[in-house]
Write a structure and sequence with these properties.
Pathway: Cofactor biosynthesis; pyridoxine 5'-phosphate biosynthesis; pyridoxine 5'-phosphate from D-erythrose 4-phosphate: step 4/5. Its EC number is 1.1.1.262. Strands 3-4-2-1-5-12-11-6-7-10-8-9 form a twelve-stranded mixed β-sheet, sandwiched between helices. The protein has ten helices and twelve strands. It folds into two domains: about 190 residues, Isopropylmalate Dehydrogenase (3-Layer(aba) Sandwich); about 120 residues, Isopropylmalate Dehydrogenase (3-Layer(aba) Sandwich). A hairpin with a 2-residue loop joins strand 6 and strand 7.
């Protein structure tokens, strides 16, 4: 008697939200499908009217249907919008549907139907104008949907991962915003995320100073001695592999990068300048601290080139690939 091996279930696909339909999101979604084909299962949630003319697409009834769509065709979980999408000119009437698509993607993950979510760029102004969007941005909305109070933004590419402790605030406000509690929480969430979603059992964390030369022993600023060093000493005593506070100007050359798995920086540009210099097109925005995997391309809606066929899908492709890798590390894909 011959026993037939049980069929392996198809991997759960990644949910790709449409983002702002008047931006480059629909275009790069179609291009990403053409590049990835069947090698990475994902489906797009949005209104097929917003896809570039001539895009091959097929409607699916649910995420499981994505596996049955031919490689050159974009699987679409249809979500009708009230208005057409004019490239470069967001319509406030579409804003509530943009928000609903994000919520729908999270619901599919929470129901176990999707392995991860990758989000296309949104226009916060359009959402505020048309939907009264009350949260600061995409990440905060996802945190609210997940019931999480604090999340961490990480930017990643093959050569570097960076985490800014303070993000979208004026530089003059950074010293007052940078507290021991904020720094410690950021490092703990970062370490847990690298362990849970990147398979690093003991992540090596490099922490930048705030001031030039990491304060030069207090002669160029006291934040390193007063705030940063005590937190790092306390976490090192727990067994964490942490270096710092380090001068930021010597942290990002190749030999330095080989010594750590993530660089924790004190403010936005300190973190984003090096990664965008190394890999401007392929950087990925990862949200750590959520109970699910979320990635996004590291760029905006690009209204100035929307609808012209010029959009580069590299960052979206990298975001989808990273979402799949993270989902596998967590046993979700």
């Amino acid at each position: 008697m011959t026993l037939r091996a049980a069929a392996r279930p198809a991997p759960r696909p990644i949910a790709l939200t449409c983002g702002e339909p008047s931006g480059i999101g629909p275009e790069i979604a179609a291009k990403a499908r053409a590049i990835l084909g069947a090698n990475l299962p994902f489906f797009w949630i949005g209104d097929p009217r917003h896809l570039p003319p001539g895009t091959p697409w097929q409607e699916i009834a649910g995420p499981a249907g994505a596996a049955k769509v031919t490689p050159g065709t974009l699987p679409v979980l249809r979500h009708d919008f009230p208005a057409a999408a004019v490239p470069g000119r967001p319509d406030p009437a579409n804003a509530p549907a943009v928000v609903a698509v994000i919520s729908r993607a999270v619901g599919l993950m929470q129901a176990g139907e999707a392995a991860a979510v990758t989000t296309a760029p949104i226009s916060k102004k359009a959402l505020k104008d048309g939907a009264g969007f009350a949260v600061p941005g995409h990440t905060e909305y996802l945190a609210a949907l997940a019931g999480v109070d604090r999340v961490v933004m990480m930017l990643a590419c093959p050569d570097l991962r960076v985490v800014p402790v303070t993000i979208h605030i004026p530089l003059a406000e950074v010293p007052a915003t940078l507290t021991p509690a904020l720094l410690e929480e950021t490092i703990r969430i970062t370490r847990h995320g690298l362990t849970e979603s990147f398979g690093l059992a003991a992540p090596r964390i490099a922490v930048a100073g705030l001031n030039p030369h990491a304060g030069e022993g207090g002669t160029m600023g006291a934040e390193e001695q007063r705030i940063i060093a005590p937190v790092l000493d306390r976490l090192r005593a727990e067994g964490m592999a942490i270096a710092g506070p380090l001068p930021a100007d010597t942290m990002f050359h190749p030999a330095a990068r080989a010594g750590y798995d993530v660089a924790v920086c004190m403010y936005h540009d300190q973190a984003l300048i090096p990664i965008k210099t190394l890999d401007f097109a392929g950087g990925v925005n990862v949200t750590l601290g959520l109970p699910f995997v979320r990635t996004s391309p590291d760029h905006g809606t690009a209204f100035d080139i929307a609808g012209r066929g010029l959009a580069d899908p590299s960052s979206l492709v990298a975001a989808l690939r990273m979402a799949e890798d993270m989902a596998r590390a967590r046993g979700l894909a």
